[in-house]
Amino acid sequence: MANTSIYKSLVFSGLSDLPSLQLPLFLVFLLVYLMTLTGNLLIVLLICTDSHLQTPMYFFLGTLACLDMGYSSVTIPRMLFDFHTQNMFLSLQACITQIFFFVLLAMSEISLLAVMSYDRYVAICHPLHYTQIMHWKACVLLVLGVLMISVVCSLVHVLLLLKLTFCTINTLQGFFCDLPQLLLVSCSDTFINVLLILILALLVGGGIFTLTFCPYIIILNTIMKMQSKAMRSKAFSTCSSHLTVVFIFYGTGLFSYFHPNAKNHSAVDKVASVFYAALTPLVNPLVYSFRNTEMKISFKRALCRLMCWNNEDTKIQCL
């Protein structure tokens, strides 16, 4: 028998049901979205145009910026549309499509953070062999591997979602289609889906988590043995920025997906989902990139070139 669930509709509860808050929320998240796109796009442009930043570390950073732009674009534009039109309805097909891309980009991001940990491990612990290990072919293959793993995991979730039945118009406690919330409103048995989340979290997520944090045990030990205070400060600055992004992403994501009694914490869930779905892509360039000395210097060079482009007397100084 054909699965009639694809014709059912879902409705978001939204962040607030107060009409007076819809316009302020629209303006706030529009600003967040524009700042996210601007910050991450600026990072990509600087890395592509500045030869000083065309290294494996900044290649991964540029990839992270691209993922952040896609990650925020999966959720925020739809939320802005809902704020503007007050139309909280969404077809099940559209919801599952949003889940596919959200899981794909989220999985890609945590996998890339693990790759960046390995990159820092090689750069700090094996600096003499860094260029031989982290050559461009290896960097591209690592990113392609990250994307392939993420696509497979996302497809598995979506294929199992398509087998579920949704009997009536269901309300999702949030502002976008999140996998746990969609499972809660299904009138089918979701045991296999929940089991899959746990298995992938333990196997794939646990493996990525280990690959992200284990290198830092060796990295921190190596940093403490460095004789130069300047070298220790530079290495620690790079690692602390990366770890800050990792803790923010893992902390909010794990809380939203795995805390107990999810049905009784809808308000808390909304706050956490706003943070990891909307604010994390904005925080990443601020924490990880604009604290970076080389990125700041590159940004100043770009501004200087822009201001002096039509001034022949100062063009040489700018370059």
From TrEMBL:
Subcellular location: Cell membrane
InterPro entries reported in the protein's UniProt record: GPCR_Rhodpsn (IPR000276), GPCR_Rhodpsn_7TM (IPR017452), Olfact_rcpt (IPR000725), Olfactory_GPCR (IPR050516)
Ranges for domain G-protein coupled receptors family 1 profile: 39-288
Highest taxon, organism lineage: Eukaryota
Entry keyword set: Cell membrane, G-protein coupled receptor, Membrane, Olfaction, Receptor, Sensory transduction, Transducer, Transmembrane, Transmembrane helix
Membrane topology: Multi-pass membrane protein
Main location class: membrane
GO cellular component: plasma membrane
Similarity section: Belongs to the G-protein coupled receptor 1 family.
PANTHER family for this protein: OLFACTORY RECEPTOR
Protein name: Olfactory receptor
Annotated organism of origin: Hymenochirus boettgeri (Congo dwarf clawed frog)
